[in-house]
Each structure stands twice: as structure tokens, then as C-alpha cells.
């Protein structure tokens, strides 16, 4: 009897007998559970699993509930619970995707910002025009998708910098426009700058 009831519980929660892997969410339970006594637990959350019981937090308290106390569900109840869980998973997946998409432009800009700083601060003119940059400010435009290249983005920007010319012995300032192409394999991935080039003039939009 105990095994049959626990099997029914597994069906309800779509659970696995195996212990959850590290960093995985704890196995889920229905939000509403009916016990064999007729008692109904609402807003149920699993605290931990034991050998012969499960500790549940619900509206009204926290208690260990023996597996034998769970009421065997009807087929209709099982179907309802499964549908609710699938809907919840779908909602959470869509919310995570939307969050990642909203964060993507800023992640792309951060990648270009780091690359631009590296390019400007490490670049040196050769020979008599040697210079040392000591101040830098980067302005970036919003990323734009590259037509015909899924997952590719173009970012235009300008670097404002001050430098010391060691040959002439004077301080000066200048600016330089640039274009960066960024590859993003998926919205949750890390943007990678695949091309960075200086531009002779301000680019046409």
C-alpha cells in the first residue's frame, strides 16, 4: 500500500526517486495536497525529502508528512496537476528568455567597451610619432542586427582620449571612430567581438 501511494505521489509531482543533482531545483509538489484524512494543504512547498516522509511548508505551518498519508489522486486530478505544472514551466521559460533578451544589448555594449579600451590604450604610433594615452572615454551607439547574419550585431562608437607625445613633448587630445562586429550564439551566451576596426571619419547612419 505504501509503495502504491508513493508511486501516485511521484505521478502527481512528476518526480524522480533519484536525489536531485547539485544546483538543480528541489523536486516540486502540487500547490494543493489532499491527505487521506480529508485535510487539504494549500500553497505547498517542499522543504526536504526524507526516507519515509516529506517536510512541507504550507499555509498554516511546516510539518513532516508521511507518504502513507497522501490521498491517491484520480486520473482527472493527475491530468489537472500535470497541465498546471507544464503551464508554470512554460511561463518561467518565457520569462527567463524575455529577461535574457532585454539584457542582451547591455551585454553587447559591455563587450565592445572592454575591447575598445584595450585597443585604444595599447595602440601606439610607431617611430617619431610615439604617444602615451593617459585618459580615455568611450561613447557607444545601440547595437544593430546585421542583416543576413543571425546572431551578429554592429556597434559604432567613438573614443575620446588625451595623450602625451614623447617626441614633441606636449599634451594633446583627439578622437577616433570605430566599428565593432559582435557574435552572440544565443541570448544567454557571452557576446564575442569578432572584428574591431578604426574609421577615418564619422560613419554615415
Secondary-structure element sequence?
HEEEEEHEEEEE
Got a strand count? Answer: 10
| Spans of at least 5 consecutive residues with low confidence | 1-26
Our count of helices gives 2
- Biggest sheet: strands, sense, closure? 5 strands, antiparallel
Can you give keywords for this protein?
alpha+beta; 5-stranded antiparallel sheet; 3-stranded antiparallel sheet; 2 helices; 2 domains; 205 residues
Task: Please tell me about this protein's structure.
The chain is α+β, with helices and mostly antiparallel strands and 205 residues long. The chain has two domains: 2-73, no CATH class; 103-199. The protein contains two helices and ten strands. Strands 6, 7, 8, 9 and 10 form a five-stranded antiparallel β-sheet that branches. The longest helix is centred in the middle third of the chain and has 48 residues, at 75-122. The radius of gyration is 30 Å and the shape is elongated. The chain starts with a helix and ends in a 6-residue tail after the last strand. The model is unreliable at 1-26 (pLDDT under 50).
Amino acid at each position: 500500500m505504501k509503495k502504491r501511494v508513493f508511486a501516485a505521489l511521484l505521478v502527481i509531482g512528476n518526480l524522480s526517486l533519484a536525489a536531485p543533482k547539485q544546483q538543480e531545483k528541489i523536486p516540486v509538489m502540487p500547490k494543493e495536497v489532499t491527505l487521506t484524512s480529508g485535510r487539504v494543504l494549500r500553497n505547498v512547498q517542499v522543504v526536504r525529502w526524507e526516507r519515509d516522509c516529506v517536510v512541507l511548508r504550507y499555509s498554516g505551518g511546516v510539518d513532516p508528512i508521511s507518504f502513507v498519508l497522501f490521498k491517491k489522486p484520480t486520473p482527472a486530478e493527475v491530468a489537472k496537476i500535470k497541465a498546471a505544472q507544464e503551464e508554470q514551466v512554460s511561463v518561467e521559460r518565457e520569462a527567463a528568455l524575455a529577461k535574457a533578451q532585454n539584457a542582451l544589448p547591455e551585454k553587447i555594449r559591455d563587450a565592445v567597451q572592454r575591447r575598445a579600451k584595450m585597443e585604444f590604450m595599447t595602440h601606439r604610433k610607431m617611430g617619431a610619432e610615439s604617444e602615451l594615452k593617459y585618459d580615455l572615454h568611450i561613447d557607444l551607439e545601440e547595437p544593430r542586427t546585421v542583416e543576413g547574419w543571425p546572431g551578429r550585431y554592429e556597434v559604432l562608437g567613438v573614443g575620446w582620449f588625451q595623450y602625451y607625445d614623447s617626441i614633441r613633448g606636449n599634451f594633446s587630445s583627439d578622437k577616433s571612430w570605430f566599428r565593432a562586429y559582435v557574435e552572440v550564439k544565443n541570448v544567454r551566451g557571452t557576446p564575442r567581438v569578432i572584428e574591431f576596426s578604426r574609421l577615418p571619419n564619422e560613419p554615415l547612419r
